[in-house]
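User: Need the bound-state model for adenosine-5'-triphosphate:
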Amino acid sequence: MRFRGPPPPRILLNNVSCMRNAQTVLRDINVSVHDGAALVLTGANGSGKTTFLRMLAGFSRPSAGEILWNGHDIASPGVYQQYRLQLNWLSLKDAIKDKLTVLENVAWFEVLEGKSGRALPALELMGLGRLANEKPRMLSMGQRKRVQLARLLAIDRPIWLLDEPSVALDDEGVRLLEHIIAEHRKKGGIVFVATHLPIKMEDAMCLRLPPRFPRRKTFLDLIR
Ligand SMILES: Nc1ncnc2c1ncn2[C@@H]1O[C@H](COP(=O)(O)OP(=O)(O)OP(=O)(O)O)[C@@H](O)[C@H]1O
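Assistant: Bound-state model below.
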């Protein structure tokens, strides 16, 4: 009689290191991520959080180790084509086009995905329904971030890579962010979040990246 073991992780980082500018930024990272899981990346400025997300997105290659998706190295050409269609990337650059309306700025991503009908409900959930037909110059910083979150919902891919998703959001915006992350995970979605600000996520794994250089005295130490 054969016993089934636990399912293999959806994403596995196996002794991964990453160099930037000829210097090692990330060293020997090992992480297993299953469906429905969340990994929160924290650490000082420059510790490598964005680098970690870029590597998961396939924009930077590990200098050592491997990143496996469903047991396959994401760097393999055939695998990467499929893997990248699983990813939804929210970065500090919002890629909002000034000439399009707020709604078109979400719907445009949806059309690229071959989907339709999700953009307006997503904007409404983010509290931007009444601004849907306005130009983005009408938007505040926090509202622009909400447009990015609406895109996550409209595109609806399983693996979310979120770089500082709560920056500029008010309290209600952060609660909405926490809500959509929780709902996404309930459906089996995976969430990676790089953040300096606390975001409530049940049973999230946390990886605190060490500072890259020995700490030097800063202006704050001098005035204390
Ligand atoms: N394009 C680049 N070329 C070379 N080195 C880079 C590049 N971008 C970032 N780095 C270096 O990689 C290191 C990690 O940067 P990264 O942006 O991943 O840090 P972070 O933890 O996201 O920082 P922050 O909290 O400030 O957003 C930094 O020391 C930075 O100088």
